[in-house]
Structure formats: structure tokens, C-alpha cells
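Need a sequence for this fold. Nothing fancy.
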């Protein structure tokens, strides 16, 4: 088997949030595949980067009072930490805000322009007169033109599912400042995806047989029947102010983040080439013999399987060998939820002391190489890890190692063992290519099932020969030595097959076995005569149910806090940060007197002369609007509050203040000391609308 040249990428995580378990499905899947390829002896490189450009980055940095460069540098460190914690072994983890990505963005753009595939045309879009910026669709909110639901984004309605243009929204407002947006014309740059050349190429490219069946069907649906032209040109520009790369020869115009994000794969690999002395062109020129694979979520298939290959083809670069799309993660059969504690960050999982390889194993057992969603069933997670890894796999080594150490000076039998092993457990030696095929096809679930079936065979061998009884019987030393040597060899083969999934556990197993790092070719052999093993140390503990419960509690955000959560604190015109703690029980009748309602913050502004107050205008739907003064100035920039849903006490008696009348109270959580820098406004789950009663 000749060595392959393989370049692998995962989708770039956006530098505006933490890595969570849903993200990790993709990175764990990719990492397993890459580790397998390297074990096979192939030259396989795995690159990724933070996706760092766009309006959300710019606005978040502004809110935090730092530069975008400072923000993305901090998040890069956080992402790198979380990936390392789950043993994701990138060969290079870089940033799209780099000289390399800028170079290839400009290069591809100039080549597409020279090919006549870039067009400039004026478009009308919403403009925020307060922030003096054009608004992306997700920063425009208003009433759905189809069902009338309020506070919907500018591209689709979360209530009825309708898709529309932001200009179709009723009563639109800027989610940045709360101002009524204005329609304004601006020149935009388009990649002509509708061009017959792009259409013809994409029809040919998407017909290749290696694409996932579900992905191919979806792409053909988007392309339409032969002769149809269903693809629209792609707007690749944004107006200043914007954090990104300025378009050459177009002052004040910037590449849209989705233009330079996939080009970040090229930028990261170019940076790796500089580090390792590789030739970039060997991997990216049209005649390259190397393989290029992108692992992505199914929600970004459109970008990676239509825009991206069309850009590369017409800019003179190679196109992907394949795009591997996966489904989403659910937890206990439902979407990840902050209120249930199942929206779990990578950092939280690790901080709670859970072994990252428990999750790697469970995800591997669920993945099958398709676009199906996978479910993290927490009860099954505990049961499967404990049963498979501890009960079946680890148990094999622990049962044999003590006898080898105590009775045979830590050495296996002094004879060639291959034929004897084949006579007792032949499938362990004969299954390597079958298991390799499952790994290659990303059908990790089938690989795990086959490996565990082999582990069952080994444990049946243990039950048949009962080494603990042999150790007590006189004259059975030779048989005991053979049985334990059989088990140590079986454990080594199972460890080899599991190594892509459990790299750190197997590294410790290699140290115990006293062997060099295992490669796939080693599956053809057993350990040599009289091989010495090292003293056994326990390799993995069982998951305790209370560990999972603690993880959920640590991630749960609820309107009914537990002692492990932050205590509630109410902030209104007459409370300026002091902690309000309940010291006595109340009855349900007392609680029912409080009218809690969902409210949308229609406007927020500073109060002249007030050190701690913000003036909020709250939309309560059919109940009208209320004015509230809240002591949250130290924690929130008013511009970031506009459009947000929160919870208010709607039947609090109005109070006259020197700044005006306050007609209610918004709810927030705080640290136990009630410091105003640690305030967190309560937010309802998606689907709630202004005026809804909280009970």
C-alpha cells in the first residue's frame, strides 16, 4: 500500500463564542479519521483556524472596550485550550486574520474578476442612522410579514419558519441601537454563481459518486434540473464599518466573512508549509495528486459544496476531493438547552473533571458517516462507557497483568506465540482490514461494534480458562502463563484498534505494554517471546452518575435557581445594586400575586446624572409599553440590550423618581455578593413573545 498525501480540515469555529459539545461532534470525528490515516502510514495533515471576521466580532469587541484583534487573540487561546483538552491534534490551528488568508482572498478575487465572474451592482439595504452602519440580516428585527410574530430576525421567522428579505419585515428596528432603519443604496460586489460556466462545472462536480448520498440529493435540488438556473449570484462584499479584509481597489468595501472563511483553510495550510518546509502548490494546484477533505456540519453544505468549489475551479486551484457533512447533536432526544443544563461547553465538561475520552468514545459509537443527527443519551453514555471501556476492554489487562508480574517476573511466555494465538483468538488478527474499512468510511459506530464484539470473544476466553483458578491450582503455572500471555496480546490488539478514538488511554496502554507507539501494520503480529511488560496501573475509572448530574447542574440556567446557581436579584429604579436575599418562605398565594411577564427591550439609554441606572423602554405586547429605571449600568452597554427579551415584574406599583416615572422591575441574577459588575439579565427561551405570562 503506497502512502497517500491527504489534507483534512474541519469547519472554522467563529471567534465569538465558546466551544460546546455540539461543536465537538465534528472535531472529534475529524480527529479520529486523521489519527487513523496517520496510523496507516499516510502523510496526513489536519489544519483549522478561528473564523475571525464580521460584524458580530466588531460589535462584541466594541462592547468589551477592546480591539477586535485583542478579542480574537483571547478567543483563539480559549479555543486552543478546549480543543487540546479533548485531544484534538491539529497540525496547525491558525486564524483567518492572517497575511496568508489575506493573500489568497485577494488572489482568488482578482482571478475571478479577470474571468468576468465578479459584478458590481447597487442594492438597497437597511442602514442604522444611529450607529451609521449597514445592518446584516441578523441585526435587523421586526414583525414577521407572514404570521405577525414580533422580534423576528431579518432573514427568517423562528415562530412560523418563513424565509424572507429583511425589507419585508413590518416595523423593523436595528438590533444594535434600536433605531428605525433606513433604506439606503450601496454598491456591492457579487460572485456570478449563476454564470453558465459555474452551473456546468457544479453539475459535473456534484455528480461524482463519492459524495454522500444525502448531500448529493440536496445539491441536485439546489441546482435544479438540466437547463434550469436556480443558483443566485453571491454577495461577497460588506460596507464599512466592518472587521475584515478590504477589497483591493474598492475603498470602504470588505470581503464578506463567508468569502475569506474557507480560504482560511488555505491560509492555515500555507502557514504550516512555512513551518514544515512543505510545497503549497503540491497540494493546491489543479493537477495535484493529493487528497483534500472538508469535514463540516450539514448546515453549511451550501457554502462548501457550491460556492467554494466554484470559486476554486475558476480561480485556478484544485477542488475538494470530498466534503463530509455530519448531523447535529441532541441531548436526551432534544435540542441542547440552557434551562435543562444540556447546553454544555467544552470548558465546563473538563472543569467538572469528566474524562474527555469518555465523550470521544461515545461519539465514535454513534457516528456512521451520514448526515443523520446523533443523540447524547446521558444514561446510555454512562452505561456504555462503563460497560465497554471498563468492563470489557480495561478488564482484560487488569485480569492478566498481576499474574504476569507476580509469578512470571513481568515476562510473557518464552516462545513464538503467533500460531497459538491464531488457534484461540484468530479474529483479533484477521479483522484489522475490516475495521480499517469502517474507519476509512467514517462508519465509526460499526468499527466500535466490531471491536467490542472482539472484546467479548476475549472475555469469553477469560471465563473459559479462569486464570484466577489456575493460579490456585498446583501444577498449572504453564497454563496460567499461556492464558495471561494470550490476554496481554489480545489487549494490545484491541488497544491498537481503539487508538484513533482513545489516543491518551492507548498511550498509557503502550507504556504498560512496553511497546513503541502502535501503527496499523502492527495488527499482523503478536508480541515477541519473553517480552517484558511494565507494572500495571489502573487505566480508566468508571463514570459515576453523580458526575453527570453535577455537569448538568453547572450548566443549568433557570428561572428557579438552585443553591448551586446564582441567587436572583431584582433591579429597578429604587434598587441600585444592593443584594436582596429571601430570608423567609412564602406561600404559593404570595407568589401568585407577582405578575411576571416577557418583555422586549425596545430602547435603552443612559440616564444623565445617574451613576448606576439605565432607562429602559419595555414592550409588553398587548399590554403596551412600560418605562423602567434599572440599576444595571455597570454591567451593560445600552446598545447591546435593544431587541433583547427579558422578564419583568409588571404589577409593581409605579414609583416617581427625579429622573421620571418607573413602572416596573426587570429581573437579573448576580453573584452572591451582589456586585453590580456581576449582573446577568434573565432571558426566556426562544419562542417566548412580549406579554407572555411567566408562571
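Here you go.
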Amino acid at each position: 500500500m503506497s502512502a497517500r498525501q491527504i489534507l483534512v480540515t474541519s469547519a472554522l469555529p467563529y471567534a465569538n463564542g465558546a466551544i460546546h459539545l455540539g461543536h465537538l461532534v465534528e472535531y472529534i470525528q475529524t480527529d479520529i479519521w486523521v489519527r487513523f490515516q496517520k496510523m496507516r502510514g499516510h502523510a496526513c495533515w489536519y489544519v483549522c483556524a478561528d473564523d475571525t471576521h464580521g460584524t458580530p466580532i466588531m460589535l462584541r469587541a466594541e462592547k468589551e472596550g477592546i480591539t477586535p484583534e485583542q478579542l480574537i487573540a483571547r478567543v483563539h487561546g480559549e479555543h486552543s485550550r478546549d480543543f487540546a483538552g479533548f485531544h484534538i491534534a491539529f497540525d496547525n490551528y491558525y486564524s483567518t486574520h492572517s497575511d496568508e488568508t489575506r493573500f489568497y482572498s485577494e488572489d482568488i478575487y482578482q482571478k475571478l474578476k479577470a474571468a468576468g465572474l465578479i459584478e458590481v451592482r447597487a442594492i438597497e439595504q437597511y442602514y442604522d442612522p444611529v450607529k451609521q452602519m449597514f445592518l446584516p440580516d441578523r441585526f435587523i428585527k421586526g414583525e414577521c410579514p407572514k404570521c405577525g410574530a414580533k422580534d423576528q430576525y431579518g432573514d427568517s421567522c423562528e415562530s412560523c419558519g418563513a424565509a424572507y428579505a429583511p425589507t419585508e419585515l413590518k416595523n423593523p428596528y436595528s438590533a444594535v441601537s434600536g433605531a428605525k432603519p433606513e433604506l439606503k443604496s450601496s454598491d456591492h460586489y457579487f460572485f456570478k454563481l449563476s454564470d453558465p460556466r459555474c452551473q456546468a462545472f457544479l453539475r459535473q462536480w456534484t455528480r461524482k459518486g463519492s459524495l454522500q448520498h444525502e448531500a448529493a440529493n440536496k445539491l441536485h435540488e439546489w441546482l435544479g434540473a438540466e437547463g434550469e438556473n436556480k443558483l443566485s449570484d453571491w454577495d461577497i462584499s460588506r460596507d464599512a464599518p466592518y472587521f475584515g479584509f478590504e477589497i483591493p481597489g474598492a475603498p470602504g468595501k470588505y470581503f464578506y466573512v463567508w468569502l475569506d472563511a474557507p480560504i482560511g483553510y488555505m491560509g492555515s495550510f500555507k502557514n504550516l508549509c512555512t513551518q514544515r518546509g512543505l510545497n503549497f502548490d503540491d497540494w493546491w494546484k489543479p493537477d495535484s495528486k493529493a487528497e483534500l477533505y472538508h469535514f463540516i456540519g450539514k448546515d453549511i453544505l451550501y457554502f462548501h459544496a457550491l460556492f467554494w468549489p466554484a470559486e476554486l475551479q475558476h480561480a485556478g486551484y484544485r477542488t475538494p476531493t470530498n466534503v463530509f457533512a455530519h448531523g447535529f447533536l441532541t441531548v436526551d432526544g432534544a435540542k441542547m438547552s440552557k434551562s435543562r443544563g444540556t447546553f454544555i461547553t467544552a470548558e465546563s465538561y473538563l472543569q467538572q473533571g469528566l474524562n474527555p475520552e469518555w465523550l470521544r468514545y461515545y461519539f465514535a459509537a454513534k457516528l456512521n458517516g451520514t448526515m443523520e443527527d446523533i443523540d447524547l443519551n446521558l444514561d446510555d453514555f454512562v452505561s456504555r462507557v462503563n460497560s465497554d471501556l471498563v468492563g470489557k476492554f480495561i478488564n482484560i489487562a487488569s485480569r492478566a497483568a498481576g499474574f504476569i508480574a507476580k509469578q512470571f517476573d513481568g515476562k510473557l511466555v518464552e516462545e513464538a506465540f503467533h500460531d497459538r494465538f491464531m488457534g484461540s483468538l484468530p479474529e483479533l488478527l484477521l479483522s484489522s482490514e475490516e475495521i480499517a474499512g469502517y474507519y476509512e468510511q467514517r462508519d465509526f459506530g460499526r468499527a466500535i461494534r466490531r471491536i467490542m464484539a472482539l472484546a467479548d470473544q476475549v472475555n469469553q476466553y477469560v471465563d473459559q480458562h479462569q486464570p484466577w483458578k489456575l493460579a490456585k491450582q498446583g501444577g498449572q503455572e504453564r497454563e496460567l502463563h499461556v492464558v495471561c500471555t494470550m490476554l496481554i496480546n489480545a489487549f494490545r490488539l484491541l488497544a491498537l484498534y481503539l487508538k484513533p478514538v482513545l489516543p491518551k488511554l492507548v498511550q498509557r496502554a503502550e507504556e504498560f505494554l512496553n511497546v513503541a507507539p502502535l501503527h496499523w501494520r502492527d495488527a499482523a503480529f503478536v508480541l515477541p517471546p519473553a517480552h517484558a511488560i511494565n507494572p500495571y496501573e489502573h487505566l480508566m475509572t468508571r463514570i459515576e452518575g453523580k458526575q453527570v448530574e453535577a455537569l448538568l447542574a453547572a450548566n443549568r440556567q433557570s428561572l428557579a435557581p438552585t443553591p448551586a446557581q446564582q441567587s436572583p436579584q431584582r433591579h429597578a429604579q429604587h434598587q441600585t445594586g444592593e443584594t436582596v436575599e429571601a430570608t423567609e418562605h412564602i406561600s404559593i398565594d404570595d407568589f401568585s400575586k407577582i405578575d411576571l411577564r416577557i418583555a422586549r427591550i425596545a430602547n435603552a439609554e443612559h440616564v444623565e446624572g445617574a451613576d448606576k441606572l439605565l432607562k429602559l423602554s419595555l414592550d409588553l405586547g398587548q399590554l403596551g409599553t412600560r418605562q423602567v429605571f434599572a440599576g444595571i449600568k455597570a454591567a451593560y452597554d445600552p446598545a447591546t440590550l435593544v431587541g433583547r427579551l427579558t422578564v419583568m415584574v409588571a404589577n409593581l406599583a409605579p414609583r416617581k423618581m427625579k429622573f421620571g416615572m418607573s413602572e416596573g422591575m426587570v429581573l437579573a441574577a448576580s453573584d452572591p455578593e451582589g456586585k453590580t459588575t456581576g449582573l446577568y439579565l434573565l432571558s426566556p427561551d426562544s419562542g417566548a413573545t412580549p406579554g407572555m405570562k411567566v408562571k
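For context: Confidence is low (pLDDT under 50) at residues 558-583, 672-677.
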